[in-house]
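Table S4 entry, Leucine-rich repeat and WD repeat-containing protein 1.
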Amino acid sequence: MVGIAQAGWRDMVTRRDPPADSLLIPGEGWRLKMSKITTELLLERAVPRSTRLRKIETLNLSKLQLKTGDLDPRLFSRLRHLQKLDLSDNLLDKFPNSLTLPDLRVLNCNNNQLEDVTALKQFPLLEELTYENNVYLTLNDDYKVMFLLENLRLLNGKDITKLANHVRHVHSRKLTSKVTAHWEKFFRDQLPEKYTAEQVKSIRKKFLKSVQTNVVYGPSSLSEFTRWRVKMIAEEFLSYSLGLELNSDTESEEKADENEEESTESPREAAEDVAQVTVTPSKRKRNHSKSGAGNKRSKSQANTEEEAVVNPRKSSHVQDDPAPDKPRTSNQPAKETTPEQGAEGTQKNGEQFPKGQSNRRSSQMTGEQKSQEQDNGVVTLTPVKNSKRKEDVSAEPLHFLQCHSKGNSREDFKTQLWSCVFEPVLDSGARKDPIVSSSRTVATCGGESVCLIDCETGTVLKKYKVATEEFFSVAWTTLTMVISDSRKKAHNILAAAGRRGIVKLIHVAADFCYGEIKAHKKPIATVCFSPTQETHLFTASYDKRIALWDIGIPDCDYNFKASQLLVLEAASIPLRIALVPTCPEQYLLAGCESGCFAWNIKLDKGEKSRPFEAIFQFPDDESMTTSHRVDGLAFLNDDVVVSKSSKPGCIYLWSWSRSFDAKGKGCQRTVSAVILAELEWSTTDMSYLTLSTCPAKGYVFCGDEKGSVWMYNLSSYTTAWGSPKGKRSERRISPAQILQWPELRVNGEQPPEILVNNVVSDPAFTYLVVLTSVNITAIWKKS
């Protein structure tokens, strides 16, 4: 099978090869060559060469692998007459705030890793600026520099004089008028005639949060710039128009709460045309930790959009496939919520990867705010008791997002969300430690879209959409790609698959879907990458086959070749797959519609198509049976398997080694699973509510048919189970805690029946991501 490169996507995104010089070190391969700025280097790089720093007018510092810390303000302050500076093809992520280049007129920052442009305001005489191929900068950043640099004429080679004047004057007047109106309508009466410093501080903070959320102007693709300007205008309004300037320094506090300000919504301005997303968690009374705070993530932030597909349960996705014993009913849409209208990126071949802002808000709200929001007909959240048991872990509801809606529909409570996986970190050394093997970024899929979400801020960082697709599964891998001139760099690649049987390969940092693999003729239920072979991808399909693919490594032009290495024949539809941790290149487990199976996947064996090697029996009342649907499957550690079947109220933990070793030699042998314990779970017979594990912390998670999350702390059991003669736990193990679904209300009514399709934690168990049947992604944070 040959991978199909999608050249048309290049019109949407700009691909940047990280500029770097490199050296070939014998025995070690390619290594980056680092440079340090010195006086001698500056003199040598001057055009023409100079003997004194103060005489340099043109300076070329390109292709030196410079990072932000290499720009020494003390050294640059001596470049008093510098007018042209070339910093292209480096590794800068921002500018120091005090470079002191008072005469700088031309600046080239192409091919870097810039995340923010506001520090450029220190160059007020700048006339020409280029920063192309900085993948984290967006249209919002273009507008920021147009406002900040009054003398700027050329931006990335284009004359922006007229547009910049509009931004600085017309746009600013409109926003100032809206900010003033917002104060008059919602906050003027809250300020007493005689007020204390504390009252001023409180109302200032509330107003800044509210005005950034509710004042909307211009296209939604510029919402980040608008919020940035609104905050600036609001601060000036408070200080100069009303004299509410505090003597105490509140800047540090505002910066610390920057994410909370962006995510907290106070009463909405009724006249605004663009409604805001309002799925809102409320503060739970028993805890005092603050939700929603965190460092601002500036990489590729974007406006939230809500597109998804209305679909039945996965068993009925394809009409000619077996239906479940008890299919779930379709959920009816609840009454109106108020989604934020996001901007769409350029569309090509029915696919998009727009940037967006999340549909989330901080969980901290006052009673007055809740009351006012109910009056405005928006979604509110009422705190509920978490569990009757004594809890050994405390978790706060952080964000409730509605970012997979179909066609931005505010009434879409039908879209099913299926899969989520945390992004791995790129530091190969850190990845060896499971506690630090992922970031706080999670990929989620459901309906026609895949979203990347920052769990701390609730920001939807990126979104990928295929109008004719229905995504069921996502998986990450890290590929070491050759960039150019034989230089190599690690990049995270996201694979997404679903109804069409096609695997999409997405280079996330470049916002680029670089190809697809036509893996199956029927829908793909789940995908996973090998932990030892970065290019090996398993796809499990409704055609009753599991295929192993080598997706190849794309070259600098994104040309790649995918090949099929193996086909595993299943007796029924595979729903979940897991590679055995102690031998991931030899054995694969799969939970299927008719049981749990194991295959030998070692590639040195001759046959390319293989039947299963073992089928596992599990208790069923008073006997053992192989005939049951296994819709949950994961490893708790190197040996303990956690599986959930269609038997109500039970999740089994069993030993892989002790079960499989009993098989002996031969093929397609029936083996009794060596049960270690049973977990108490919901008595529902509802299918496809899958489970997950957090091996580093010894936790198992599983959602239920009521929106709750059952959490089991098994760290105290694993040592005993690991012994060769470890005994089975006699009693069912109760959950350490049950996180109950908060009472979300839309216009005073609850959304329809909420089923938890999937729940996943990061390796350190800091965040818990809950995917539901009603198009809501819930993010909890461990307190």
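The chain has three domains: 39-137, 166-242, 395-425+439-782.
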